[in-house]
Amino acid sequence: MAKFVYAAPYLTQLGELRVVGECECGEPNCHTIKFQHFGEGASVAFVDHHTEDGRMLTIFEDEAGMLSELEVI
Ligand SMILES: [Zn+2]
């Protein structure tokens, strides 16, 4: 996934972003959280990033472009 992401529409959401849940997979290294926009609608991954410590960071948005989930595995 090498498409360019404009950060501005997401940065403006950060002040209102609330964590409403975390992943329950039980993996000790899983730090996946869900935001208030996580719901029934389709969430789409728009950022995939390999972190320096070898993890995979994936960011999801919902159909309206609201940040819905942050996955760190
Ligand atoms: Zn998990």
Bound ligands: zinc ion
Coarse structural class: mainly beta
Determine the oligomeric state from the structure.
single chain
- Give the CA-based shape: globular
Number of domains: 1
| Uncertain segments | none
Mean pLDDT: 92
Based on CA atoms alone, the radius of gyration comes out at 12 Å
Give the biggest beta sheet: 5 strands, antiparallel
Beta-strand portion reads 35-45%
Instruction: Kindly state the percentage of residues in helix.
Output: under 10%
Q: How many β strands by DSSP?
A: 5
Strand order of the largest sheet: 1-2-5-4-3
Total helical segments: 1
Q: How far from one another are the termini?
A: 17 Å
Helix/strand order: HEEEEE
Report a brief summary of the structure.
The protein has one helix at 8-11, and strands spanning 19-22, 33-35, 44-50, 56-61, 67-72. With 73 residues, the protein is mostly beta strands.
Give the helices and strands, then pairings.
Layout: H1 8-11, E1 19-22, E2 33-35, E3 44-50, E4 56-61, E5 67-72
Antiparallel strand pairs: 1-2, 2-5, 3-4, 4-5
The chain binds zinc ion (ZN).
How would you describe this structure to a colleague?
With 73 residues, the chain is mainly beta. It is built from 1 helix and 5 strands, in the order αβββββ. It has one helix at 8-11; strands at residues 19-22, 33-35, 44-50, 56-61, 67-72. The protein is globular and about 30 Å long. The two termini are 17 Å apart. The mean pLDDT is 92. Zinc ion (ZN) is lined by residues 23, 25, 27, 30, 32.
